[in-house]
Amino acid sequence: MKPWVSLLLFLSVGAHAADACKPVRVGYSDRERLPYYVGNGPAVPERPGALVELFREAVGKGGCPVVFVRLPAARVRMALASGKIDIAPAYTPGDRRADYVVATVAGGEVDTRRALRSMAIVFVRSEDKLAPGTDPERYFKSHMLAANQGTVLASQLKTAGLQVDDGSVSSESNFDKLLLKRVDGFTVAVMTPSALDPYLNEHHGKQLTRLDKPLSASYVWLGANRDYYQRNRQQVEAIWNWLGTHGAQELDALTRKYAAAP
After folding, report:
1. Cα–Cα nearest to 37, from 199, 215, 185
2. What does pTM read for this prediction?
C-alpha cells in the first residue's frame, strides 16, 4: 500500500473515532438537592453529588468523556429536547412526538428495568404528632404541602388535587418553610427513603419526621435527545444497559458515601 493511501486511511479512522467520542453534554438541575446534587448555580463542585457521580460513571460506559451542564430545573427538559444537551434525567418518558427518548423494550414500551425507581417521600413537623402511617395523599388534600419549584412532581401533585406550595426552589428553603409553619409538609423525590435522614439529623435534629408511606412512586430514566440517540445508538444503549444492571446498587453505595461524609 502506498504511503499516502495509508496516511489517508489513518486520518479517516482517526477522524471517525474523534467524532464518535465527542464529549457528551449531560444536563441536570442547578439547585442543590442533597445527597444527589451538591451546590447551587452553574458550577459543578468537586464532590458533585451521588446522582451526578452515577451519571458520570454510566455515561462513561459509552466510551466518551462527559461534560456536565447545570440548568434551572424547568429548563433541563427543554434543553434536552432542543439538543442543547445530549442526555439528562427524564422523570416522565418521551413519546413519539417528543424530541427525546428513553430506554424501551422490543415492543416500544418504556423499559423500567433500565431506569431508577423514585419515590416522593413526605416530611412533617414532629410536634404535630402525625401517625407514621398517615396517608399523605389524603392528608394533603386539606393541608398545605411544599414541593420544589419547577419540578415534575409539583405539577403532578397539583393535577392530583393536592394543595401545593411550590414557590421555593430548594429543599433547604422548604424545610425552613415547614419549620416556620407556613406549610404542613414537604415532599421531595428520592431513590431511597432514608436518603435525607442524615441531613435532617444534622440540621434539624428531631424537629422533623418522615412519614412511612411515600406519596407516590415513579421512575427516572436517562433521556437522550432524539437526534443524538439516532447518531449514537450503540453508545446510548450501552449507557442504559449499564444503568439497568448496576444503577440501583451503585447509587445506594454513593448515597451512603455522601451520608457518611462531613
Report:
1. 199
2. 0.80
